[in-house]
Amino acid sequence: MFARTLQRQGFWKARATENGKGRRVFLKHDLYLGGIYVEVMNKVAVVRIHELGLVRVFKRAKALRTFLAELEAMKGRLAVESPPLHALVHLSDE
User: Fold this and answer.
1) pTM recorded for the entire structure
2) CA–CA distance, 13 with 66 (Å, rounded to integer)
3) What pLDDT is stored for residue 85 in this prediction?
4) What's residue 76's pLDDT?
5) Tens of each residue's pLDDT in the chain, 94 residues
6) Which of 89, 74, 88 is nearest to 34 (CA)?
7) φ and ψ at 71, to 5 degrees?
8) Which SS3 state, helix, strand or coil, does residue 24 take?
């Protein structure tokens, strides 16, 4: 159930992460949030966002969906509050 939820949200399954214990890793990169990694084990999903120092554990796919929706909303607020990209990047003629 977690895998389907993550794939619908645009996460990719990392290669060579499955083992006999049922551990799978999904990932997604976002411009504002950085790398979002989700480790899916038998009955839990662990979300890690290293740039924010965030780790959350979910036992239900619905709670994970809600959390990912909140992340998307937060990303929208980050986009409004952060300076435009052209202000951050200085292109020289050299």
Assistant:
1) 0.74
2) 20
3) 47
4) 64
5) 898 999 998 999 987 656 556 689 999 998 878 899 999 988 899 999 888 888 999 999 999 999 999 888 877 666 555 555 445 454 444 4
6) 74
7) -60, -40
8) strand
Burial class for 73, CB neighbours closer than 10 Å (0-12, 13-18, 19+):
exposed
What is d(CA 89, CA 67) in angstroms, rounded to the nearest whole number? 32
Sequence-distant (≥ 6) Cβ neighbours of residue 93 within 8 angstroms: none
| Closest of 15, 12, 46 to residue 30, by C-alpha | 12
For 29-60, give the DSSP string. EETTTEEEEEEE-SS-EEEEETTTTEEEEESS
Alpha-carbon distances of 75 from 1, 63, 68, 80, rounded to whole Å: 25, 18, 10, 9
- CA gap 26, 23 in Å, rounded: 10
